[in-house]
């Protein structure tokens, strides 16, 4: 499966770079050293991206910055150039029509000046040179058009990527959402849950990232802290020190964790032990009672490949259905199963809000909610953008986020 994915990725990367080479190099240069340099870059850069995708998974983290930054820049170059294809095609058609009209127009009658009456026509001045052929004009215009498009695409991609880096590496914004629960007892009205997901400690985010998130959560004065998966992209040996500030999380009722898909890629069992030692309790297909509220957690669906998948029947078996239940589940898609078990509110992450527009359109094909609060099959689900990033250190249209969820009683 992994080999098949790598082969597919290499083919796609190769095709993308071939397209970029055509638009940015071949169409904008004449044969010579610049075109040769562009050809070399078109070979080296996809290799860099492929090496980064593999290398960062096996501890070669120095590849992360150049590889992932180019991946983001490549993506926005691709998007911009594709969007320019229609106006570029229209401009080329216009140039072709102009050339045909010029070729079809009758040549102006030549009037000779200075010839004697009845004598031979005068010769043109020796310094007169023939006009350039129409094809030369068209080639020059096409070259100018291609260079203009390439410059525009380059400036746009660099600007968007730069903005995205600043957003991704900056402090998460705080989102506050109030969620009414019909079954919530009046005594629990105003219960506050600090929700964070997708912290993604790894090659580009470490100790200071965790410290900042812990400080933000502690300032919320929450009753419960919920970490809903994708905490890490690496082993306990690699990232244990970066996760250590989690022991300083403060809340009235405790801090809880459910697995995300990246925990299973990073060695989930050692991480569960590590989090327990840090005072963050994993909820492993289980629920607990907090006064008049049930707090539950299920494993991520990726755990099925590791014999550790979600078990909703175990989690909700024998539950008092008169009590409201809040479920922690990494992926929003799990809401369909949650609704069958009468869950009142599901808290999720995983989507990153799309992370880089227009990726949110692709995420929406897989997940019922990309970000924010929605109701699916009668169950409310809130999806946070997450506090970190995966892959490129870039966020466009989906800023990093930590959320304060306030539960309110109805009536």
Automatic annotation (TrEMBL):
<keyword id="KW-1133">Transmembrane helix</keyword>
<dbReference type="InterPro" id="IPR051158">
    <property type="entry name" value="Metallophosphoesterase_sf"/>
</dbReference>
<feature type="transmembrane region" description="Helical">
    <location>
        <begin position="6"/>
        <end position="25"/>
    </location>
</feature>
<feature type="transmembrane region" description="Helical">
    <location>
        <begin position="144"/>
        <end position="165"/>
    </location>
</feature>
<feature type="transmembrane region" description="Helical">
    <location>
        <begin position="68"/>
        <end position="91"/>
    </location>
</feature>
<dbReference type="InterPro" id="IPR004843">
    <property type="entry name" value="Calcineurin-like_PHP"/>
</dbReference>
<feature type="domain" description="Calcineurin-like phosphoesterase">
    <location>
        <begin position="192"/>
        <end position="353"/>
    </location>
</feature>
<keyword id="KW-0472">Membrane</keyword>
<keyword id="KW-0378">Hydrolase</keyword>
<protein>
    <submittedName>
        <fullName>Membrane protein</fullName>
    </submittedName>
</protein>
<feature type="compositionally biased region" description="Low complexity">
    <location>
        <begin position="113"/>
        <end position="130"/>
    </location>
</feature>
<feature type="region of interest" description="Disordered">
    <location>
        <begin position="113"/>
        <end position="138"/>
    </location>
</feature>
<feature type="transmembrane region" description="Helical">
    <location>
        <begin position="37"/>
        <end position="62"/>
    </location>
</feature>
<dbReference type="Pfam" id="PF00149">
    <property type="entry name" value="Metallophos"/>
</dbReference>
<keyword id="KW-0812">Transmembrane</keyword>
<dbReference type="InterPro" id="IPR029052">
    <property type="entry name" value="Metallo-depent_PP-like"/>
</dbReference>
<keyword id="KW-0479">Metal-binding</keyword>
